[in-house]
Amino acid sequence: MPVDIRARVLSNAHLSPDYNVLSLAAPEIAATCQPGQFVMVKPGRGTDPLLRRPFSVFEVLRDTAGVPTGITILSKRIGVTTNLLHQAAEGDLIDCLGPLGQPFALVDPPAEAWMVAGGVGLAPFATVLEALNAKGTPATLFYGARSAADLFYLDWFRDRGARLALATEDGSVGDKGRITIPLERELTAATGKAVTLYACGPEPMLEAVSNLATRYGRRCEVSVERIMGCGMGGCYSCVVPLKDGKGGHHFVRSCINGPVFDGAEIVWE
After folding, report:
1. Topology of domain 3-100, per CATH?
2. At what angle do helices 203-215 and 180-189 cross, to 10 degrees?
3. Distance from C-alpha of 146 to C-alpha of 234, rounded to nearest angstrom
4. Has residue 101 got a pLDDT over 80?
């Protein structure tokens, strides 16, 4: 069950003028969080912002004995909430509700897990990699962004055994263009290999990755990004259209039924 706490800011690491990683003391959430779940957060005590906003749990923090003590969230400054999170100082209190949502269903070895991230869509994959390592499942991170300056935590993923495949729109690192370029190249070469895809990022990227997975006969789970008012299914602001098996579709709430879905089941709009 999710818990609603006022989490104390432990640290605020600025990765760039717009990106930051906020560490929160939240042992109650960290203890039960699974890869792909999220929290609803609200900084400050006023009415702007009025509602909480969803953020994937980036890392689960642990003490020297391995006991979960907190979480981190990866944020990009684009609005009121993310600006406040970017400015948060050690000791500040952040309203934090979680963990929420359905997690990724991670494969066991000898199958491989390919994580596909676009920009801030990197957020769920630190906990995913940690869980894959615990299983012994080989992992690859396909990570795309506008430029090399927008790619973060590369050494963190390398140091934990992930193979990296990168793409940037300006060609400053890896393939020039979308992350689907190296992904399709490797799918083409992976004949006979058991691979499951896990993707998070802008919806056009999720659709493209899902379509590639279908074309190459692979399962693809996607974590969708939806505006949420409550995170617990009460406001119906985060609906996602899913195929109904009869040529039509029905709507489900991503905060309850997701944010992780089988990409082949989504009706992409």
Report:
1. Elongation Factor Tu (Ef-tu); domain 3 (2.40.30)
2. 10
3. 36
4. yes
